[in-house]
Design brief:
Keywords: Signal. The chain contains one helix and 14 strands, in the order ββαββββββββββββ. The chain has one helix at residues 30-33, and strands spanning 13-15, 21-23, 45-48, 54-58, 63-74, 87-92, 98-103, 109-118, 124-127, 133-137, 143-151, 166-171, 177-182, 189-196.
């Protein structure tokens, strides 16, 4: 998805000891400073999705996602305690309007969380090609502020025990994208990156 890249200082929220979330404001160019008063970036808003097998936290109108996560409310295990479940997707929605999380077992439930900021401060969502390894590469000059994954296939044993794992979910070493990888060579996953421009020095 293409869109205007946003400065990274507007994307990164800081959780304070009080539990509040703030966003650092980027400095306006010097020529513009005299023409208008400085203003802090709007406070981000945390939105929680419903408890469901596939949960989406949708940002309010006029806002888009800057980061996100999940909380599992039920999880499938075998009688011997073996793990039969996994969070197979934890990623921004492709159009930037929220965050989604999906459980492997259809009876399990998860809640997605989205950190939403004004649309003009939000990063651009970039999705990588599906494969055993996937890289979402930011446009030239942009860096990944965050990212996620969505697995389209997942290895399991006949009794339901999982034989797979998202073994990598990390920024690229040069900061220019997000990389993910599956444990099983036959499984497939897509990487997602939230991309913005670094601050001017």
């Amino acid at each position: 998805m293409r869109g205007k890249l946003r400065p990274l200082p507007l994307l990164v929220g800081t959780l304070l000891a009080t539990g509040s979330l703030t966003v650092a404001a980027a400095s306006a160019p010097a020529a513009e400073d005299a023409a208008r008063p400085s203003a802090e970036a709007a406070q981000p808003q945390v939105v929680k999705g419903p408890s469901a097998n596939h949960s989406t936290a949708t940002c309010p109108g006029g806002t888009k996602v800057a980061n996100g996560g999940y909380s599992v409310s039920s999880f499938a295990q075998g009688g011997d305690g073996a793990i039969h479940d996994y969070v197979k997707a934890n990623n921004p929605v492709s159009d930037g309007t929220g965050w989604e999380a999906v459980m492997l077992d259809p009876a399990s439930k998860v809640e997605a969380f989205a950190i939403c900021v004004p649309s003009d401060q939000a990063p651009q969502v970039v999705k990588g090609a599906g494969g055993n390894r996937s890289t979402a590469t930011c446009p030239a000059g942009a860096l990944a502020a965050s990212g996620g994954y969505s697995a389209s296939s997942f290895a399991q044993a006949g009794d339901g025990a999982i034989h797979d794992y998202v073994k990598a979910n990390n920024p690229a070493s040069d900061g220019g994208g997000w990389e993910v990888a599956m444990l099983s060579p036959d499984s497939k996953v897509e990487a997602f990156a939230l991309c913005g421009t670094p601050p001017a020095m």
